[in-house]
């Protein structure tokens, strides 16, 4: 898989720097669309030196490169934190509410705390100045860094869930609605790792005979 041609920059961070907010945290999530496992949110404050990094949108990178870049994020960041919204919280709050709650927990754990935020279209309720453009993980170094931590940490957890709940293939499809996942649900039923409020899972739990369809 080639490295994506789109190179992030510091445009969104510079808008905050110009207002005197020099600790800008990038925030991104992984797993919102999955049927199982957590939504994982990372927050990262990079040094505000406007230097170039190799960080890119994690979804567009091969796994080995994601791991390499995630290690670099942890090495260079002024501060970083990762939080999870597990299926129970997703079912209780809905996926957007749970994502926002996990994001605010991650931001609160940063030390030093941020003075402003750039998110990938997450319009968080926060007193901090906030930029929330779409596709920010491809446009902002800070958000790209957060996407790398969120993706690699969630992938690690899905591999653990694969061992805890064998047969579903979590390590391969990461809990998304792949054909192998749908087939496993038809054979094994719903596990404790699944989001029971999601329509395909809810249909199974209600006794619908057919395996769940793609959302």
From TrEMBL:
Residue intervals of the RNase H type-2 domain: 22-210
Residues given in the record as a divalent metal cation binding sites: 28-29, 120
Keyword Transmembrane helix: no
GO BP terms in the entry: DNA replication, removal of RNA primer; mismatch repair
Pfam families: RNase_HII
InterPro entries the UniProt entry points to: RNase_HII, RNase_HII/HIII, RNase_HII/HIII_dom, RNaseH-like_sf, RNaseH_sf
PROSITE patterns xref list: RNASE_H_2
Cofactor note: Manganese or magnesium. Binds 1 divalent metal ion per monomer in the absence of substrate. May bind a second metal ion after substrate binding.
Organism superkingdom: Bacteria
CDD domains referenced in this protein's UniProt entry, alphabetically: RNase_HII_bacteria_HII_like
Keywords for this protein: Cytoplasm, Endonuclease, Hydrolase, Manganese, Metal-binding, Nuclease
Main location: cytoplasm
Reaction catalysis annotation: Endonucleolytic cleavage to 5'-phosphomonoester
This protein's record includes keyword Repeat: no
Any one GO molecular function term: metal ion binding
EC top class named in words: hydrolase
Location of this chain's protein in the cell: Cytoplasm
Necessary cofactors: Mg(2+); Mn(2+)
EC number: 3.1.26.4
GO CC annotation terms, alphabetical: cytoplasm; ribonuclease H2 complex
Similarity-based family: Belongs to the RNase HII family.
Task performed by this protein: Endonuclease that specifically degrades the RNA of RNA-DNA hybrids.
The name this protein goes by in its record: Ribonuclease
Species of the source: Deinococcus gobiensis (strain DSM 21396 / JCM 16679 / CGMCC 1.7299 / I-0)
Gene: rnhB
């Amino acid at each position: 898989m080639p490295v994506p041609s789109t190179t992030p920059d510091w445009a969104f961070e510079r808008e905050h720097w110009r207002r005197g907010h020099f600790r800008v945290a990038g925030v991104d999530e992984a797993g919102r669309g999955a049927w199982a496992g957590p939504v994982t949110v990372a927050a990262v404050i990079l040094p505000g030196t406007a230097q170039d990094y190799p960080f890119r949108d994690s979804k567009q990178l091969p796994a080995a490169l994601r791991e390499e870049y995630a290690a670099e994020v942890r090495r260079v960041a002024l501060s970083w934190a990762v939080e999870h919204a597990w299926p129970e919280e997703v079912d209780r709050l809905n996926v957007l509410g749970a994502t926002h709650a996990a994001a605010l927990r991650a931001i609160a754990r940063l030390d030093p705390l941020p003075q402003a935020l750039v998110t990938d279209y997450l319009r968080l309720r926060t007193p901090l100045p906030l930029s929330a453009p779409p596709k920010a993980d491809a446009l902002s170094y800070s958000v790209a860094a957060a996407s790398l931590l969120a993706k690699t940490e969630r992938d690690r957890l899905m591999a653990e869930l694969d061992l805890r709940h064998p047969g579903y293939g979590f390590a391969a499809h990461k809990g998304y609605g792949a054909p192998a996942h749908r087939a496993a649900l038809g054979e094994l039923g719903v596990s404790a790792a699944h989001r029971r409020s999601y329509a395909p899972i809810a249909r199974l739990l209600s006794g619908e005979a057919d395996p769940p369809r793609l959302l």
